[in-house]
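ESCALATION

Customer reports they have been waiting on this structure for their group meeting. Please prioritize. Original submission:
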Amino acid sequence: MSVVADFQKVIQSKGFKKYFSNTSWMLFGRLGQMAVTFLVTAWVGRHLGTAEFGVLNYARSIGTFFTMFMALGLHSIVVRNLVANDGDKDRIIGTSFFMRIVASIIGLLAYFVAMPFIDQTTETNWLIIIIILGCVFQTTDVFDFYSQAKVQAHYTVKVRMLSIIGMAIMQVALILLDAPLIWFAISITASTAFIGFGLMVVYQVKFDSMRKMRVDFGYMKELLKDSWPLIFSDLVVVLYMSTDKIMLKSMVSDESVGIYAAALRFSEVWYFLGPMVAASLFPAIMNAKNRDPLLYQRRLQNYYNLMVVAALAITIPVALLGPWALELPFLYGKEYAEAGAVLVIHIWTLVFIFLGVASSKHLVAENQQRMELIRTLIGAVINIGLNFILIPKYTVVGAAVATLISQAFASYFGYLVNRKFWPVFVMQTKAIFMVDIIQRLAGRVKGSPEDL
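Update from on-call: job pushed to the front of the queue and completed.
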């Protein structure tokens, strides 16, 4: 009975209701986006065929690498600062927005500088440029950061959902019209642009006037001092998450990239859940850190526990049913049958992705962003090395194995390299083996409403 009573206290607490409402909006919004995106992407993949679908996804990988710099590692840091000092939001948001605009221009110019040295077809170059232009609109994500800090995600969820529906309608029309490949890239950019303008409108109407924003170059230096490890960490993450597709194209074929991308779409479509939960609960963790160290530790452990349970709830059913679902006629079809074996392996990265997202927020809360860079560098080196070894022999399956092992080291085993971060490894281990959950079921540990 104690477990039931503890659970009732938790769900009736004011804090739980606040963060549950926010997380629910984010969850159902993203589930809707996920369903629409996945079904339409599968139709696009079936329509284009493995080769053209491979080219489109290769272009997105290259484009993502050049645009990840635009984020400047600011997400968690800006949310953290807004939670701590809401009254200074005009300076925080204004400076962050200006920094990301400058970074987007640099990212776009960087590709034009690198383009002569990359052996691509003219069509592929245009695909990459269009995708990069679309990512420029992601500079407006800083307005979403404020809604996250205020735990009011429902406004931006609606904007993103409308954008996804619009892109889906456009892509279905392109399929029916048998449009050239480049138009599918344009549809992706149009969707990103809609989100960008929508986030600005939401902030202007629901929160505060954008005219009040101001740029503080002194504060910019503070942000860069905190975020530079995360900037390089993000770049490394994109590198080792894009390496598999790039190496498959160069070492095998466009078709192998298409098959591999189909499996990843089924696997990575769930990745949103980890950052979504993290964005929703991070303010609660920071509030606990500022007022009660013991509560802070309990919330961190519950945070890791929740991430593992959520990951396993997705991973196990997808591993069992995913390969069969991929071949359904209204999804990718028999042409992508080889993607099933990739999915069974790759879906297990979800556990380590979720742990990595949780530990990343943990590091930001402790202002230990340098460890983020170290652990992602470890993952990148392992990933690239394993891809060189496994892809020539095992092609797409080898790439999936390389990704799984590298994610395990980047998000979990990597914390063993420095004794200072062993407590993070211990928390993650307790979460993986569900130590707290088992103890609570056995009645050895009681929960508290404040834990959430």
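Sent to customer with the following note: The chain has a mean pLDDT of 82.
Escalation resolved.
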